[in-house]
Write a structure and sequence with these properties.
The complex is a heterodimer of chains A (160) and B (207). With 160 residues, chain A is mainly α. Chain A folds into 3 domains: 74 residues, no CATH class; 31 residues; 38 residues, no CATH class. Chain A is 73% helix and 0% strand. Chain A contains 8 helices and no strands. In chain A, helix 3 crosses helix 4 and helix 7 runs antiparallel to helix 8. With 207 residues, chain B is mostly helical. Chain B has a domain of 116 residues. Chain B has 7 helices and no strands. The relative contact order of chain B is 0.10. The chains are: A mainly alpha (160), B mainly alpha (207).
């Protein structure tokens, strides 16, 4: 798990690596993967915590603890990146690199969001809720958990 | 010229542990709906509410986290934690975030098999996912605004470049023509080229 985390970036980057490492050896099943990834999206915290879920499905609390250790170690590398960057950041090309990267991140992020919305089935309710959440989200005083709860409630009430 | 990257809004050197625990635990507890919500919560707390970092700094940190191995948001937590209160801040922020979220993840996993098919649960999820998308969009726009604002002081060329890059990266990811990693690296390289060109252009102008 440590190896897969080190070799990937982002919360779901390690999926294929882990899949290839575990499933052929019957340490985990495909179903475990699907469930873990879904739980990762529902439960609080970054999506990356899905491996904790997988660890639990594979090996109980011990498994989830091992997964936790595996995902906590790689992020510390950012300190090295930060230090390195601090030394070179004033060079216009370096600044430009980070700026270009940030913009690409935002562009891909926004598009992935839209894809996510459409992937679970497109209907007016989902679109409406996204718009409501967007509008409320623009008002900094409204707590995010309130917006999420409201939308969850609307989803619940609309199920008929 | 103010060095935006090292500037911090308040002149505080150190954030008390109690505050860190409270803030990060809150984030860890509330961020249902995946990393998007977590990211939104982090930005709101760190930039808007507590002003521990400037918008520019946050964007820069977030960009660096894309380039490091592992979960981006955990790297962000480590980085922000260190910037707010050194090593202590790093550890406390990470633990604060992970304690509730890991615990709840394990609990939800354990319960998942029994609750996942309940129509009520499905219905709530139907509401929560679009909400996190809407909120994510707000964050994306806020972050883009920061970069555009900074570039307004520079040149129209840069703003045009930013808009084109924004749209292009979105289209590329939408069509699946390129992997996300390649798009990011490509964006970075193009940005580096643009940065070098702009610097040369402004040097020529002042000569």
């Amino acid at each position: 798990m440590l190896r897969a985390s080190l070799l990937s970036t982002g919360g779901l980057g390690n999926v294929s690596g882990l899949h290839d490492a575990f499933v052929p050896h019957r340490f985990a099943t495909d179903q475990m993967f699907t469930e873990a990834i879904t739980v990762g999206q529902i439960s609080p915290g970054p999506n990356g915590l899905w491996v904790i879920s997988l660890g639990y499905l594979m090996h109980g609390v011990l498994g989830s603890t091992a997964a936790l250790v595996a995902i906590v170690i790689p992020p510390f590398f950012v300190l090295g990146v930060d230090r390195l960057y601090s030394r070179v950041q004033h060079h216009p090309a370096v600044e430009g690199f980070v700026r270009g990267l940030s913009i690409a991140v935002i562009g891909t992020f926004a598009t992935v969001l839209i894809k996510l919305l459409l992937s679970s089935g497109f209907d007016m309710l989902r679109l409406g809720l996204a718009v409501i959440a967007f509008a409320l989200g623009c008002l900094p005083r409204i707590p995010i958990i309130g917006i999420m709860s409201l939308c969850g409630l609307i989803g619940f009430l609309a199920r008929r | 010229m103010v060095d935006l990257v090292t500037e911090r809004l308040d002149d505080l050197d150190v954030v008390p542990s109690k505050t860190l625990v409270r803030v990060w635990f809150g984030i860890g507890l509330q961020s249902f709906g995946g990393g998007v919500t977590t990211m939104t919560l982090i930005r709101r707390s760190v930039v808007d509410q507590h002003r521990w970092l400037t918008e520019e700094r946050f964007n820069r940190d977030f960009a660096l986290c894309q380039m490091t191995p592992g979960v981006n948001l955990l790297a962000l937590t480590v980085l922000v934690g260190k910037q707010t209160a050194g090593i202590r801040g790093m550890i406390i922020s990470l633990i604060g975030l992970l304690l509730p979220s890991v615990f709840l993840t394990v609990v939800i996993t354990a319960l998942f098999v029994s609750i996942k098919d309940l129509p009520a649960v499905k219905a709530v999820l139907r509401g929560v996912l679009p909400a996190s998308v809407g909120l994510g969009m707000v964050t994306a726009i806020l972050m883009a605004k920061t970069t555009v604002k900074a570039s307004l002081q520079k040149s129209h060329f840069r703003i045009g470049f930013i808009l084109i890059l924004l749209v292009t990266s979105g289209v590329l990811v939408w069509t699946g023509a390129m992997s996300a990693t390649l798009i990011l690296i490509g964006g970075g390289i193009l940005g580096a080229v643009e940065g070098a060109i702009s610097a040369r252009m402004s040097r020529n102008r002042t000569e």
